[in-house]
Amino acid sequence: MKTDRDTATRLLTQMMQIRQFEDKIMELLAKNIAEGGSHLYAGMEAVAVGAISVLRNDDYITSTHRGHGHAIAKDGDLNALMAEILGKKTGVCKGKGGSLHLADVSKGNLGANGIVAGSLGIATGAGLSVKNRKSGQVIVCFFGDGATNNGIFFECLNMASLWKLPVVYVCENNLYGMSVSVERACAVQDLTKKAVAFDMKSDCVDGQDVLAVRDTVAKWVDYARNGEGPSFIVANTYRYYGHSRSDPRAYRTREEEKFWRERDPIKIFSNRMVEQAILSAEDVKEVEESVTKSIEEAVDFAMK
After folding, report:
1. pLDDT tens profile 76-114
2. Crossing angle, helix 151-163 and helix 118-133, to 10 degrees?
3. Beta carbons within 8 Å of 173's beta carbon, 6+ residues apart
4. pTM score, two decimals?
5. How far apart are CA 106 and CA 195, in angstroms?
6. How many CB atoms lie within 10 A of CB 275?
7. DSSP H helical ranges for the chain
8. Helix %, strand %, coil % for the chain, to 5?
9. Of 61, 11, 19, nearest in space to 40 by CA
10. Cβ contacts of 218 within 8 Å, gap of 6 or more
11. Of 292, 240, 268, 213, whose CA–CA distance to 17 is shortest?
12. How far is CA 11 from each of CA 56, 138, 288, 293, rounded to the nearest angstrom?
């Protein structure tokens, strides 16, 4: 897919919004302004932004306990999202959902939830609804590598394949389920093989490259919309923060974290856009400054 200036600006803006939103949440947690559990998406921005960028406004997504990034990429209102996490009635769920249960059905976001693999059941049910209504919509279902070891994963992939439901299952493989490495948890290291049993098409993509994610998901969204059925995509990515704020990340090495920090999705994309003269260095700076202002405004809105 071609990337023009407007598209590049939108993709960069959303990735920066997610990064700065998450950094701000961590700051608010440290100050006990935000309370309770919160699982941050920083480092994984290219997956949500790239995948959701190819959807129609009326298409659906289902999310995970690490759902802030998906909510923002699905055109979520920063003010309402921040207010929700701070438990305010001006929040997108009137302050009753909080960090782990962000949802905005008006935007096609069927919600985050605190159950590993919970998104699969919701997405598959939505896929059946869409097929019965013949609405031409598509569902993108996000879940982590750990979810692929749960029974509902296999039940849903079987059902979706049998009934040719319009669901694109996107596994965000960030290498760890809480503190357990995917290498220790999965009998097969190539997670795409898990779709073979259901005769489902599968793909693998660099989850740090927003354009690669965008192109890959676009192909399978079209496949689903044309009535061909579901697909399974593995996006290899990495979360910068721990599983939650209480996680010291003792199970990860500094060398591993350094490797992934050097493959930062925002840096990769902004550098490429500047090199290709689609955006200038000044454009990138302006986007960052604009995003910083919008995050501060969201905090101010939520606090007041």
Report:
1. 999 999 999 999 999 999 999 999 999 999 999 999 999
2. 10
3. 144, 145, 182, 191, 207, 234, 235, 236, 237
4. 0.97
5. 31
6. 9
7. 5-30, 45-52, 68-73, 78-85, 118-133, 151-163, 182-185, 210-225, 254-261, 265-275, 281-303
8. 50, 10, 35
9. 19
10. 1, 54
11. 292
12. 15, 21, 12, 18
Measure the CA–CA gap between 48 and 210, rounded to whole angstroms: 9
Region of residue 277 (left: phi > 0; alpha: psi -120 to 50; beta: else): left
Of the candidates 136, 83, 78, the residue with the CA atom closest to the CA atom of residue 107: 78
Amino acid at 140: V
Token reading at 297: 């405004």
266-300: per-residue pLDDT in tens? 999 999 999 999 999 999 999 999 999 999 999 99
d(CA 32, CA 143): 28
Contact present, 112 and 64 (Cβ < 8 Å): yes
Q: Tokens 């003792």 appear where?
A: 250
Task: Please name every residue paired with 109 in a beta bridge, in sequence order, or none if there are none.
Answer: 61, 104
Which residue type sits at 113? N
Asked if residues 130 and 56 have their Cβ atoms less than 8 Å apart, the reply is no
Amino acid identity of residue 300, one-letter, is: D
Residue 200 token pair:
């489902």
Structural element, H or E, at residue 176: strand 176-177
Give the pair of three-digit tokens for residue 242. Answer: 């721990």
Cβ atoms of 230 and 200 within 8 Å: the answer is yes
Evaluate whether 66 touches 41 at the Cβ level (below 8 Å): yes
Cα 288–chain centre separation: 20
**Residues in Cβ contact with 132 at an 8 Å cutoff, skipping those fewer than 6 apart:** none
Both tokens of 216, joined, read 């890959």
